[in-house]
Amino acid sequence: MILAPAPPPPPPLCSSTRHHLRRKTVNSIRPPNLLLRRTTVNAAGRDVDTFTESSGYLFELSTSEAESLTDYDISKIASIYRKKPLIVLRRLLQIGNTLGKWLAVRYLDSISERSDMMFEVRASQLRKILVKLGPAYIKIAQAISSRPDLVPPSYLNELSLLQDRISPFSTEIAFNTIEKELGLPLNQLFSEITPEPVAAASLGQVYQARLQDTGQIVAVKVQRPGVQAAISLDILILRALAGLIRKAGKFNTDLQAVVDEWASSLFREMDYVNEAKNGVRFRELYGSLKDVLVPDFYIEKTTRKVITMQWIEGQKLSEVKDLYLVEIGVYCSFNQLLEYGFYHADPHPGNLLRTYDGKLAYLDFGMMGEFKQELRDGFIEACIHLINRDYDSLAKDFVTLGLLPATADKDAVTKALTGVFQNAVSKGVRNISFGDLLGNLGTTMYKFKFQIPSYFSLVIRSLAVLEGIAINNDPNYKVLGGTYPWIAKKVLTDSSPQLRSSLQTLLYEDGVFRIDRLESLLSESLRARTEKALVKVEDSDSNEAIKQIMSFTLTEKGAFVREILLQEFAKGLDALGLATLESLTSAATAYLPFAPSPSSSLTDEDMINLRNLHRLLQLLSGSPNIEDADTGVEAFGQYTKGRTNSEEVSLILNEFTSVQDIAALLNVIPELPPDLQQQLIRLPVDLVGKFVSRVAARTIRRALL
After folding, report:
1. In 3-state terms, what secondary structure has residue 483?
2. Source organism's superkingdom (predicted)?
3. In 223-271, where does DSSP find H-type helix?
4. 10 Å Cβ neighbour count for 588?
5. Phi and psi (nearest 5°) for 480?
6. Of residues 681 and 478, which shows the higher confidence score?
7. For residue 30, what pLDDT is reported?
8. pLDDT for residue 478 is more than 70
9. Which residue, among 172, 168, 169, 144, has the nearest Cα to 157 in the 3D structure?
10. In this structure, what are the phi and psi dihedrals at residue 646, rounded to the nearest 5 degrees?
């Protein structure tokens, strides 16, 4: 189901079999034979759905007990089921019996060498078992079904059916629930409604309807009866199991806290008023992003058990090959996680759809997460330090994020992280797999008592699911590689004191300017685009690269980087002046009798500044980089190794006298907006000021020393 605005005048739900509701009870309404999308669920002839038939005994709670379970409170849940030991025992036997039998036959398949032959059969059996056990187990399976790189195809196909094609409960119960919750007869609410649900998921099922008052086509989601009782008991069991596993495996992570975080999100998801508010907020934050669609919500027709929202048409993103929308999803996820911190924590394929006009639609806002500002900045810093192989800083980032205790041996952790990540990072940022990083980190996490904070489990799940959907479109896609350009752009432009301090620290290692790191950030940030006709900046198209770099550095967002560049240009020009004077003096005295042996007055710092000036000129002239942005400074060190000062000066002068490169720079200036051209005119004055200040300071320093 994808929700899109219905064009005026609104069309009938089905022109040939349109059904108008009259002032009758639901039971007296003759169901029309509506022809809907392939997600339509046929429940004809079923009075009791599979979940209710198998686990309906879990619903037997008093009114006061059921009302006390509206919010997640493990102590309340425990107190309720402490009085119901037979129900708890029956549930344990049901879980053990169904899953135990399935595991046993899978084991028999393996020893009889029939595993491959029985794959599809066992996958179908597992899906049916999960449906019988109910929402908690279905939710776990939904997360797994989003990873085609981890789950065999047969299981993937079966588990994907759990996203929106679960057997529905009785439509009569659903219609009665709508009338009870909204306080009006069905025919006063809707002029038309489908007689059967068009989609059924773990927590509820959806009907297509037309509002009586406005004629708008909407989706009406109704909650399954008994889901809170079933989920409450299953969480109690899973939480106890998590405690046993932690003790037996001596895990450092508080597994029960992870279950609590997941359970809290599940309980919030069962409150449809909360979901509607989340959807409104999500629409306000991200609905204006290019090619992103978020449905409208009808708050006045929403309660804890019924939610009404805009109807949208389309296909699951996982069922179409649309890499552009995958990139849009990555960009939107970046905004969710790292810009505003309010993110969709359940982005399984059933909740991400491609509309028929080519937009990415988000659905189902029950499970959302909050990522605090300090944690967002810490996550960004960790990504930057990982890409730049600064494992010492990465170890500190893990403490900030709560992944490592403050008492951990930082030196030992740094050494371990180097061993874990260096091979992955050496492939380049665009080839780093999020899943591989987590897998490689496993042993190190156990050794150094890593802990997974409860908030982080939802973040990891969101990223892992997104990468899973992307892999379904492109097996080589890497979500970190897709996100990093936006991270690089944010680091370069964000006004946050913490991120500016991180950028300063990153670019100046032991007081030495690391131009290779700036070059890498600029190079990656240029890839942060969402247009369908992406402009690829190749070496052969240097004008576009020059234009984008100048446009960035001349804007207000680029002011911090612009100041760094001006400072480094001043240092380089100062070193160039010294080197030029030294070269001229050396040339003038070379033929004098009894000429003194040449000795250089240039310091190591001067030589570094001279080389940085050379690199900066190459960057701004659009010349090809000396090395790929991923490989670091080593190649440049080899490139400059062994040169004399005069050779360095000659190279710099060649940059100034290269008419072609200067022409390329000058050609771009008229293409800049007028305000940026004015800013460019002011730069020489600023540069001269910094240059004069540096020369004066150096002269005074040498005079005193």
Report:
1. helix
2. Eukaryota
3. 227-249, 255-269
4. 10
5. -70, -40
6. 681
7. 34
8. yes
9. 144
10. -65, -35
pLDDT bracket for residue 361 (50, 70, 90): very high
Distance CA 622, CA 426 (A): 26
Residue 436 annotated among the catalytic residues of the structure: no
Helix ranges (H only) for 361-494 are 373-387, 391-400, 410-426, 434-447, 454-473, 479-493
What number of residues does the chain have?
A: 705
- Judge contact between 260 and 229, C-beta under 8 A: no
Closest CA to 480 of 535, 524, 538: 524
Q: How confident is the model at residue 599, as a pLDDT?
A: 62
Burial of 406 (0-12, 13-18, 19+ CB in 10 A): exposed
Three-state DSSP at 556 gives: coil
Q: Quickly count helices (H) and strands (E) in the chain.
A: 28, 13
CA dihedral over 427, 428, 429, 430, signed as positive or negative: negative
Distance CA 584, CA 463 (A): 59
Cα atoms in the Cβ-side hemisphere of radius 13 Å centred on 658 = 18
Predicted confidence (pLDDT) at residue 45 exceeds the cutoff of 60:
no
Rounded to whole angstroms, what are the CA distances from 544 to 249, 490, 669, 681? 56, 21, 12, 20
- Binning pLDDT at 50, 70 and 90, where does residue 705 land? low
Cα separation, 270 vs 265, in Å, equals 9
What is the pTM (predicted TM-score) of this model? 0.73
* Model confidence pLDDT, tens digit, residues 369-426: 888 888 888 888 888 888 888 888 888 888 888 887 777 777 887 887 787 677 667 7
Strands, DSSP E only, in 78-202? 190-193, 199-200
* Catalytic option among 49, 234, 296, 346: 346
